[in-house]
Amino acid sequence: MLLGIFAHGQIVNNWNTDPYITEEAMVFHDDLDFYLNSYSKQEIKAMRKQVNIWRMNFDKVIRATIDDIRAHSEGSVVAERTRDFTLPDARTGDPYHLLGDQGRIRAFMFLSVTNPPGRFQLPLWNSLQKKYDSTEVHLFAVYGRELHPGDKKTYKNYPSPKSEGEKLAYAQELAMTVDIPVLVDGLNDAVLDGYGRAPNAAYVVDKEGNLVFRGTWADSRKIEYIIDMLLKWEKAGRPSRLQQLDR
Question: Does residue 149 register a pLDDT over 70?
Answer without folding.
Answer: yes
